[in-house]
Amino acid sequence: MRLALVDGKRVEAQPGLSGSCPGCGGPMRAKCGEVLTWHWAHLNAECDPWSEPESEWHLAWKARFPEEYQEVVVGPHRADVKGPSAVLEVQRSGIEPAMIREREEFYGEMLWMLKGDDFEERFITQYLGQGIYAWEWKRPRQTWGVAERRLLIDFGEIFEITRINSHQTPWTGRGRYVSGSELYQAVCGEGVELVKHEWYLLNAAQHANRCQREEAHDLRVKREREAEDLYWAAREQQRSEDERRRIATALERKRLEDEARRKSAEEYERYMAQCREHDARQERLRLSEKRAHSMFAEVQWYALEQRRGVIYGEILKRRPYPIKDVGSWSTPDLQDLLVSLERRGITADFCQRVNQ
Q1: Nearest to residue 160, comparing CAs of 182, 193, 130, 138?
Q2: pLDDT tens-place string over residues 240-265
Q3: I need a surface site. Which of 11, 37, 314, 321 has the fewest CB within 10 A?
């Protein structure tokens, strides 16, 4: 213990002093050696069943709070630190899960402070931003998996475990670093003046440096995220512009294709109209030629009929022998005869006389 009653007052251990326990009233002796921190010890058995041998680390933590809040007797037990707002239990050695639950139920609003020197190399933290750290605890102290009150670890700086995953090892979770003044307010309440202790000055400097590093990290991450957001915004804008350009190009291409298809259809219709007009013209020419041939044949036939007697006479003049039934020949027969005579070399004067 750090404090005992001497003449009714709570005092620290001094060489040669004797006192009594504030809890049980039993005699206590001041132990003031050259190695360990000066403290009080019961001459008889310890009155508090929860009491354990205290190290210099225990005594140093108690000394960081006002004396009236140190080693406060609560029923049959003696709290390490009990302020108006909460109890702080300083724990170095292992403790059974049942004892953890019993103390949490007995004290109610409380905090646990663990000494982290023994496992600091197995407790790895990684800063995530906004004051939050991810942590991994290799070969953890399994008993602390049942703790339901605030769990803090003393690594020189105070680390608070805010979330824990103890279903598998190594344990993982989230946490943050807590300043000494914040811990003091959590135990003593807001507005209570901070005691003058060199540890708070050292811790304030450490915590300020850490906060500066965290702020610099957060600022760098913020700028990187802003730069990344700008990059992706530019990419998205470029993608949107590319998409609009692609759509505009596709619409223009479709318009040109439709226009070309329309022009092709018009040209095809125009070509087909020309073809139909040409065919109709050729048909008209053919019919005109056919009618002309028919009219010419009719004219020739009429001429032959008119000059049948003259033709007979001309034929008879050129034949040394009589032609049988020449008078009964039809006009086509006369035409065939004239053609055969022309092919055989009859002079043109014959045809001229026939046609006169």
Answers
A1: 182
A2: 999 999 999 999 999 988 888 888 88
A3: 321
Among 160, 189, 222, residue at a domain's last position: 222
Residues 146 and 42 placed together within one structural domain of the fold: yes
Structural domain for 42, as ranges: 3-222
Nearest-Å Rg of the Cα atoms of the chain is: 63
Integer Cα distance of 84 and 98 in angstroms: 26
Position 236 in a domain: no
Residue 118: which of 90, 94, 89, 146 has the closest Cα?
94
Q: Which residues share a beta bridge with 81?
A: 70, 88
pTM for the complete prediction?
0.61
- Report in angstroms the alpha-carbon separations of 183 from 13, 197, 300: 26, 14, 139
What gap in Å lies between CA 91 and CA 85, rounded to an integer?
19
Angle at 339 between CA 334 and CA 344, to 5 degrees: 125
Q: Are residues 318 and 216 in the same domain?
A: no
